[in-house]
Amino acid sequence: MSLLTIGSVAFDALETPYGKTDKIIGGSCTYIALSAGFFLPKVNVVAVVGDDFPQEYMDTLKSRGINLDGLQIKKGEKSFFWAGKYHNNMNSRDTLVTELNVLADFKPVIPASYQDCDYLMLGNLTPQVQIEAIQGLNKRPKLVVMDTMNFWMDVAMDDLKRVLTMVDVLCINDEEARQLSDQYSLRTAAKLIMAMGPKTLIIKKGEHGALLFQGDRMFYCPALPLEDVFDPTGAGDTFVGGFIGYLAKTDDISFENMRRAIVHGSAMASFCVEKFGTERLFEITEADLAGRVNEFRELASF
Amino acid sequence: MSLLTIGSVAFDALETPYGKTDKIIGGSCTYIALSAGFFLPKVNVVAVVGDDFPQEYMDTLKSRGINLDGLQIKKGEKSFFWAGKYHNNMNSRDTLVTELNVLADFKPVIPASYQDCDYLMLGNLTPQVQIEAIQGLNKRPKLVVMDTMNFWMDVAMDDLKRVLTMVDVLCINDEEARQLSDQYSLRTAAKLIMAMGPKTLIIKKGEHGALLFQGDRMFYCPALPLEDVFDPTGAGDTFVGGFIGYLAKTDDISFENMRRAIVHGSAMASFCVEKFGTERLFEITEADLAGRVNEFRELASF
């Protein structure tokens, strides 16, 4: 099934206790597309970069089945750039630089060839841009999944609440779920958030795994305890990319299949953090993924 | 199989956002025995109280199959007393009062009738008292499980390390595992801690569940997301009491059975937090527990 994802394609500069990088390829859309692309022959991307974005990076993405027909390249402008430094426990980080650049006035344009979209993944972006992406499609996709972050709750809550009424699945972290619902209990938070629109809610808890809610049903996927987390950048996007990639591949949006999709997303994320940036996502094989999914099965079974 | 537990039998005064109590029955041994007693016709207790401890409380415990032949009652002395106040998120608390009283010079005495002990549960106490309890048994039990806390790591690390060489299973929380191993990664911490003695390690993560480690094997049991946590007091002791009670009932200490024991302990703990103190533990039925274990199965299966 065809998958369209919209989000940022950008430069990241990362520093963790294991080392630091210069500007490397990053952005929510990059991680989502690489992760979802593991499951699908093609992933359609809508995003924007400046003309500083190297052709080499675009060629690399294309070689993984990522369709960049919807990638706008703004002449004379610079790509979105984020720099961050992780603390020793890897659970907290400081943002050192955020340069919106081309993202500041991004208007998503959906190419005609993308209009058959069955699965739509809205990466973390201004809620207004997420709305425009949905409205840019002639037919409503079978499943719309969105990511967001606490920043939009602070500065664009009305727009955010409007997108929430337009999507099927919301994917946020525990802190964001608490902020959005003003409830500490994640179970109570989930009820309130699902009443805002999305019938299904994923709450990411980092090293503590992820929760999936739909009506009265719950699924708790643990995170695989790892000896070393090398670089957590992109883990959340890799997770949700694997989730929607697996759903699109199997074309089954039942709750039972969403459980398996969560596990596949978690497995992809567990690889992502093993090296800097997107590096590890280029190495994994189908056998690696099958082995990792078995580790999750072994981890959770009783 | 016969189970012996040693720990505190005490008074607690609790305050949570839902209300507060006067002095009520508390102590690690009380929660462990009540939880383990759910699985066994009898639980043998070694503990100490002052003569302020009401006969009514002792009668209540006895009515649940808890054998108090090993409960020392110190004339003219007062029982251990702890008072605490939980913050709004229930994940942190302030200790308002700690009066050691009879616990200050507790010398465990194991009654002759307890010497057939197959399963030994060492509740959180001075490591020296835990050692004396093990040494007070003529034959080594089939399984020795111990709880401890960060306080003993601060003030009695040498004694604590000595107990660790004498036990089979250590049960601590994530913060304690990190302190004991000086490692942030729980998987690395587990390796180092198991090298200190216990072949099996349980790391409790509160609302994030519990991890079980043995050699290279891992099991992750999620905590059931609850709408309300009324009072978390005793949840950890109820958890480990359910764990060892289930093992003693089934008399199977394989890793596979320990997985099921962790789930039964987690189920017992999920009941415990639904009311103040030990109250909920007196209400649950076998059908309640079976239903809750099924909820865990549903929560974790994919």
What does this structure look like?
2 copies of one chain form a homodimer. The first copy, chain A, has a 9-stranded mixed beta sheet, sandwiched between helices. In chain A, strands 2, 3, 4, 7 and 8 form a 5-stranded mixed beta sheet that branches. Chain A is an alpha/beta fold and 302 residues long. In chain A, a hairpin with a 2-residue loop joins strand 13 and strand 14. Chain A contains 10 helices and 14 strands. In chain A, helix 3 (127-135) packs parallel to helix 5 (157-164), helix 6 (174-181) packs across helix 7 (186-194) and helix 9 crosses helix 10 (286-300). The first copy, chain A, has one domain: UDP-N-acetylmuramoyl-L-alanine:D-glutamate ligase (3-Layer(aba) Sandwich), CATH 3.40.1190. Chain A is globular. The relative contact order of chain A is 0.15. The first copy, chain A, is 36% helix and 25% strand. The first copy, chain A, starts with a strand and ends with a helix. Chain A has helices at residues 28-37, 55-63, 127-135, 150-155, 157-164, 174-181, 186-194, 235-250, 255-272, 286-300, and strands at 3-6, 10-16, 19-20, 24-26, 43-50, 66-74, 81-86, 93-99, 119-122, 143-147, 169-173, 200-204, 210-214, 217-221. The A-B interface holds A 88-90, 184-188, 190, 205, 208-209, 211, 217-222, 225-229, 259-260, 262-263, 297-302 and B 88-90, 184-188, 190, 205, 208-209, 211, 217-222, 225-229, 256, 259-260, 262-263, 297-302. Chains A, B: Keywords: Kinase, Transferase. Chains A, B: Residues 41-279 form the Carbohydrate kinase PfkB domain.
In short:
Chain A is α/β, with parallel strands linked by helices. Chain A has helices spanning 28-37, 55-63, 127-135, 150-155, 157-164, 174-181, 186-194, 235-250, 255-272, 286-300, and strands at 3-6, 10-16, 19-20, 24-26, 43-50, 66-74, 81-86, 93-99, 119-122, 143-147, 169-173, 200-204, 210-214, 217-221.
